[in-house]
Amino acid sequence: MIEIDGLKKLYHERTVLDVPSLRVQQGGTLALAGANGSGKTTLLRILAGNLQQTEGSFCTASPVLYLPQRTYAFRGTVLENTLLGAKDQKEEALRVLEELELIRLKDKKASSLSGGELQRLAFCRLLVRSCRLLLLDEPTSACDAAGTKLLLEALGRYRKKTGCTVILSTHAPTVALRAAQRLLILNDGRIEADGEPQTVLQSPGSPWTKQFVEGWKL
Ligand SMILES: Nc1ncnc2c1ncn2[C@@H]1O[C@H](COP(=O)(O)OP(=O)(O)OP(=O)(O)O)[C@@H](O)[C@H]1O
Ligand SMILES: [Mg+2]
């Protein structure tokens, strides 16, 4: 269970995140959507312990694993990158590289990968470890349709195996529909909509949400 109370982040007196109360049950997947600058990354970074909130508190299960919005390659091969922080997991690393269809690239320099390949590699680095809370910031933003499908299927299997809670941000309605049981839409740092993805998309509660969702369907 994740519990958030009175959480706020301000930059130079401007509030970029304001979440009075949020509860997320253990084991589900929550998608975060909202325009650029609406506070998705800010919320994920605070939950990851990567950014200090200005006010309020939160409590999460641990350990927490976090995939930043900007993924990067570390020095070394694809396999070495997968094993970072999990040196004794070679068998599992090979399995996840196979799962994400990166196995034929395992001995290549990670820095030589394409954007979508690199994003899948960053995800593999998480899959070899276990956690209770998985935070993914736009995990499929660089993936093509096939890559997105691979990644979401692997995510589903990982969640089943570990029982972890997943919070992922996305600009793709299909990702929210396919991966999440719950969708939050942020508007200028505040939760504007909260419900089952299908319901939020089909019956948006407020005029603002309706307009946002219409834009999403374009
Ligand atoms: N270090 C900072 N100093 C000042 N403002 C910041 C800082 N970091 C983030 N912000 C502002 O906070 C707001 C929320 O940013 P955030 O990165 O959380 O948005 P986002 O919803 O993840 O957007 P995107 O869809 O573009 O990734 C933005 O207006 C951003 O400019
Ligand atoms: Mg972001």
Give the gist of this structure.
With 218 residues, the protein is α/β, with parallel strands linked by helices. The chain is built from eight helices and nine strands.
Description:
With 218 residues, the chain is α/β, with parallel strands linked by helices. It has a single domain (2-216), classed as Rossmann fold (3-Layer(aba) Sandwich). The protein is 35% helix and 27% strand. The chain has a 6-stranded mixed β-sheet with strand order 5-6-7-3-8-9, with helices on both faces. Strands 2-1-4 form a 3-stranded antiparallel β-sheet, covered by helices on one side. The structure holds adenosine-5'-triphosphate and magnesium ion.
Secondary structure layout:
Elements: E1 2-11, E2 14-24, E3 29-34, H1 40-47, E4 55-59, E5 64-67, H2 78-82, H3 90-99, H4 115-127, E6 133-137, H5 145-162, E7 165-169, H6 173-179, E8 182-187, E9 190-195, H7 197-202, H8 207-216
Parallel strand pairs: 3-7, 3-8, 5-6, 6-7
Antiparallel strand pairs: 1-2, 1-4, 8-9
The protein binds adenosine-5'-triphosphate and magnesium ion.
List the main descriptive attributes of the protein structure presented here.
Rossmann fold, 8 helices, binds magnesium ion, 35% helix, alpha/beta, 218 residues, globular, three-stranded antiparallel β-sheet, single chain, six-stranded mixed β-sheet, binds adenosine-5'-triphosphate
